[in-house]
Amino acid sequence: MGISSFKQSKSLFILLSAVFSSSLLSQEMVPLNGSRLIASCKEFTSTKTPNICAAYLQGFLDASPHVIEKGQLPSEFVIRAIKTRIPKNDVTSQAINNAKYCIPKEKTIFELAKHIADVNYSSQHHRMANSLVVSILDTNYRCDL
Hints:
It contains 7 helices and 2 strands, in the order H-H-H-E-H-H-E-H-H. The protein is mainly α and 145 residues long. The chain folds into 2 domains: 29 residues; 110 residues, no CATH class. Strands 1-2 form a two-stranded parallel sheet. The protein starts with a helix and ends in a 5-residue tail after the last helix. The N terminus is likely disordered.
């Protein structure tokens, strides 16, 4: 094998590597819509192997100011006092006022994924993943504040 054929092979290898890696990257950059989240959650609930469903749900719950662990809520009396007597810019007041969804401590990402896996694919094709999660939270984990 001569130097010129080695250079051509090396160039071909670099070119093919670039093509394949860019096609993989473009597949990963596809937005997560409702039907893809449902499919991923079905896989997660059947294999119990963490995947994009588990990661997405964990990130959603961790990042949302509207989700609170049910065990973190004070009594109804204290909630009323916080809402009426503590300034609105207080961190505790904001957490209580923003809380829309109360997830019981014993509930897991797996159980939330089961709710999503049970949703009908066909009606969720164009729906964004976050709106699907919000509808599941609205239906199953609404706070009674």
